[in-house]
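Hey, I'm writing a tutorial for new members on how sequence and structure tokens pair up, and I'd like a real worked example in the thread rather than a made-up one. If someone can provide the structure for the chain below, I'll link this post from the tutorial.
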Amino acid sequence: MEEYLQAAEDDMKASVEALGKDLQKIRTGRATPKLLENVQVEVQSYGATMPLNQLATVQAADARLLVVTPWDKATLQDVERGIVAAGLGLNPSNDGQILRVPIPPLTADRRRDLVKQLHTMGEDAKVRVRHVRREYNETFKEGEESGDITEDQLTRYLDKVQKLTDDYVEKIDAVCGAKEKEVVEV
């Protein structure tokens, strides 16, 4: 049963890590290469759709500018179209060699929308953690019904799972709170 507790913790940790990756994609007004991490580019000359990171390097030149340098200059137009089509609200400028992607400052309305989006992502992560709790609670209850564990052990395991759940919900709140501070910072 201790293995189940460890598995429950691993599953909850995975939920928090997934939230962290999702939050990295939210634009805070600062240039970071992670903004373009999930951009897919339809490359006409290759006849395929590829992730941007397989076609170019992305660097933050300063706090408000990303520089995208395609390895094959023939794909420059395709990369530019891919960034625009990604729906990030970014408009790259093309000088024939590289793309400069200015990061516009966030408006107050956009910041509010991002904070709402953050809260939604946080709630989704909490739901995933609670789902893990329910799943393992059911496993422990089945163990008690089949006679593998006693009623006292069941109570102890359910308490441990609840403590894990509370700890991970706190971690989710902390991660979301830190990201919210970044978003509302002007």
